[in-house]
Amino acid sequence: MEGHGFISKRRRKEDSNGEAEEGERPAKVPRFTVGLRDPAPFADQLKSNETTTYQRVTMEEAQKGTPAERPVRVYADGIFDLFHSGHARALMQAKGLFPNTHLIVGVCSDDLTHKFKGFTVMNEDERYDAVSHCRYVDEVVRNAPWTLTPEFLTKHRIDFVAHDDIPYSSAGSDDVYKHIKEAGMFAPTQRTEGISTSDIITRIVRDYDVYVRRNLQRGYTAKELNVSFINEKKYHLQERVDKVKRKVRDVEEKSKEFVQKVEEKSIDLIQKWEEKSREFIGNFLQMFGPEGALKHMLKEGRGRMLQAISPRQSPSSSPTRERSPSPTFRLPFFTRTSPSHRDAAAVDTISEDEEADG
Questions:
Q1: CA atoms within 13 A of residue 214's CA, in its CB half-sphere
Q2: Residue 42's pLDDT is what?
Q3: How many other CB atoms sit within 10 Å of the CB of residue 253?
Q4: How far is CA 22 from CA 26, 79, 92, in A?
Q5: 161: β partners
Q6: Which helix (H) or strand (E) holds 114?
């Protein structure tokens, strides 16, 4: 059994099959819940109940709910290599199929898995242990069979087998769960798309160089990583180059931050300079403009100067002094008896007042 899927970060509401509906908040659970303290036991470590007759329950009875002392025994099997959330969600769905469920999980051995499917990353003991620590598991069957036989179902008193509904072809069979479905013992679950053991291995193979360099930095030897001497030196050189690149990148980022700070301060200085410039220009125009204060000051000063320079007018109430008539001046070459020049002499007679007026 391989879980696939991508778990959305949005809140989800689980239905009876474990499917999720986005956009709905799940019901609140009690703050204090009972947590499991021990891993699930292995089936070969439990006492056998073969002394009592085992009668399978029907789907209708299982869905209604069975007594506490008679839970519905659901079986789910798989390889569970690199145990991940896809596996856990599949087991969660199997556990939630019925109101009262005892979940038995079968894990195939290394020999069987390598024969029918391929090489695994984790060995069988690691896979057994990983499954036993899943909170939904009640019992673990080690060295589980590849195909479920009636004898195996009877031995473990299995009521239903949970697996995704996609036909699982193997060992010359189009669907290894075909006979389970025909017997009415199959309970389908849903895959979680986006994650699987194969996907994880693909990521590691795709980024092989990155993970090799990562483990070399963590102290693993080239021999442990199956890396040749030349490749080891190449990875070390790449790591040094990357360190230099990171340092250069850090310097560039710091330089950008410094330049950004300088630009911000420059902008602040320019804004302040513009404000001061506008203030200076406004003050200058207020002082020296066409209607500025300086013009009014000059007008007032000019008026004061003119007032100081020009004589004061006599008061209108002061008595006026009559001037004495100016003596008549006559040209010496004109005689008093010349009748023809009498008018001319009169014309040439100039008084002091007339000269003064002229």
A1: 6
A2: 94
A3: 10
A4: 10, 30, 18
A5: 75, 186
A6: helix 110-116
